[in-house]
């Protein structure tokens, strides 16, 4: 299987890349990451040629098209994080987290990628109270 992992140089994404390769060593892993404040290639350096790394942005169709070639699944971690920062720069959060995900989905559909897994955090729920009646 060939898997594209967006945001794979970030803290959680890179740990997932390492996990995946430990459990599926024959799979081909392609990582797409813009290497902004949250991404660090050093998180992946030890994997060497076990992965294919592409520096690119999910909002850029020109970066996505080659990254999606031959992919069987996408695990989508790429996002602006630290929600408190969104108050000061809502545009970048909207561009990446909403528009970028939309563009990625459109290009994945065109490339006929059969599986798409969107990873998120508890931040999407805001400050809702959690109790035994809260739906999963």
Automatic annotation (TrEMBL):
Source superkingdom: Bacteria
InterPro entries named in the record: Epimerase_deHydtase (IPR001509), NAD(P)-bd_dom_sf (IPR036291)
Domain NAD-dependent epimerase/dehydratase residue range list: 3-129
Alphabetized PANTHER family for the sequence: DTDP-D-GLUCOSE 4,6-DEHYDRATASE-RELATED
Family: Belongs to the NAD(P)-dependent epimerase/dehydratase family.
Protein name: dTDP-glucose 4,6-dehydratase
Organism classification: Bacteria, Candidatus Woeseibacteriota
């Amino acid at each position: 299987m060939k898997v594209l992992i967006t945001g794979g140089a970030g803290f959680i994404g890179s740990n997932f890349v390492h996990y995946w390769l430990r459990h599926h060593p024959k799979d081909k892993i392609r990582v797409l990451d813009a290497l902004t404040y949250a991404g660090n290639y050093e998180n992946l350096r030890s994997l060497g040629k076990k992965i294919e790394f592409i520096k690119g942005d999910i909002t850029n169709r020109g970066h996505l098209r080659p990254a999606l070639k031959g992919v069987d699944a996408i695990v989508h971690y790429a996002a602006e994080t630290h929600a408190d920062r969104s108050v000061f720069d809502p545009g970048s959060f909207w561009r990446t987290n909403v528009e970028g995900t939309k563009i990625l989905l459109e290009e994945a559909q065109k490339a006929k990628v059969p599986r798409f897994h969107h990873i998120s955090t508890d931040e999407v729920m805001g400050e809702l109270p959690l109790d035994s009646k809260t739906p999963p």
